[in-house]
Amino acid sequence: MRTRIYKKMAGTSAVFIPADFNHASPVERDGLTWTDTELSMPETPQSLRWKSPLDTSLALEGLEEYDPPSPGDARYIMKLGIGFVYIEKIRGWVALTDFV
Known about the structure:
Elements: E1 5-8, E2 15-18, E3 34-35, E4 49-50, H1 58-61, H2 63-66, E5 73-77, E6 82-87, E7 92-95
Parallel strand pairs: 2-7, 4-5
Antiparallel strand pairs: 1-2, 1-3, 5-6, 6-7
């Protein structure tokens, strides 16, 4: 399995996007990166519970208030065109880079 590298989305506390994402997206400019292992991404395919799509990744930050996420919850972010999965260990969202 190849290692994936992520950067944190600007303005978020725990929303991560692939470092090589080739569309306009605001990422932190501090140069820090994380691997899929550091972000506790599962090594084998997991069942996802797809929830309703959201407009922007910033909307993921407010879910704890009105729709608390559970491990394996997934949301499609329309403005980015990618899905994110909730990882309980980091209490954050990581972009899905492979769909199985």
